[in-house]
Amino acid sequence: MANDSVLWGVDTMNAPWGLQSRLKLVALACHFFNANKTAESHAAIGKSLSAEGTPGPLTVLDFLKYLEINKTFSKTPNAIRVAEIVERMASAGLLVCTGRSSGSIAGLADHYLYMPTVWEARRALFRLVPALGPEYLFWLCAPGLVHITGRNEKGNAVAGTGLVLDPHHVLTCRHVVSDMKVDGTQTIQGREYAVNDDSLYMHTDIDVAVMRVNGPPLSPLEGVLFQAPVLARTVYTLGYPKLPGLREASATMQQGAVTNEAVTSLAGEKLFLYSAISRPGNSGGPVMSDDGYMVGLSIVDATGRYDSDDAFAPHYAGIPAQVVVGAVEDFGLGIELQFEQYE
Prior knowledge:
Elements: H1 4-8, E1 12-13, H2 19-32, H3 38-45, E2 58-59, H4 60-70, E3 76-77, H5 79-91, E4 95-99, E5 111-114, H6 118-123, H7 129-141, E6 145-151, E7 157-166, E8 169-172, H8 174-178, E9 181-182, E10 185-188, E11 191-194, E12 200-202, E13 209-212, E14 234-239, E15 252-264, E16 270-274, E17 286-289, E18 294-301, E19 316-320, H9 321-330
Parallel strand pairs: 1-3
Antiparallel strand pairs: 2-5, 4-5, 6-7, 6-9, 7-8, 8-13, 10-11, 12-13, 14-15, 14-17, 15-16, 16-19, 17-18, 18-19
Helix pairs in contact: 2-5, 2-7
């Protein structure tokens, strides 16, 4: 193996890594440590098999050699940083540590395996969210967010948020499209699509709507699964809130937590509460968990009215994922949403 100066010297990637470098490393680690390709990974670095001829799990040092041989990065990655990312992958359940060495410096001699499953394949790139964090989650979701525009009854420009569900449908809240006259042309993923009243499907009992668009197929978020909200789980609201003073609509992301996973409004709606700020314009946007599941749709704040002497303690309400999935099925549009149950 290369000497220490190559592992963490001046010619290695010592500065903080951007998202794309971390994403590249995680994807390569999944490939290199793949339990079904262990023999292939041994051959790639010229490492001999065991006396029995069976390939055993490989180490972080082996992975570093693989990166060096394949010239994946313009500079050799800093070994300590690679070990930290591999350990984070193990903590997130992406890798399995099969053995720790007592003489391992920073875990470089520890052995790992990546065990691909059918369940994991369904999640596509969203399976990497726990290892790469909220910046990666936003990067994945942003292309699927839709800025739905229109005019209210006073003629003022208003907007809400939607999410691309499949090549021809956008998910949003019913009140987003019912409280405005939706613009006849909507810009989605850089293209313009014609929309009219016949394009809007609004649920009669649940604040959920679907907008159908005709034209070039949209690109849905591959691998996004729906899952019921869980108390205290970290969540993020994503959408297009009203931002006065800016020239263009900007997607934003706000962190919070689920504060109650099941409440009922005075109107009988099944909702959940969270603390991530949901501003006007966020309605119809997804509420995502920190492990990359869609747990609901943003609707309104639930602060209610407070007396002047009361502390201001806002909560925000959303439609839980299981209710959203059921509402979309009611439309009978052939949209298939993948909902994951807890065992």
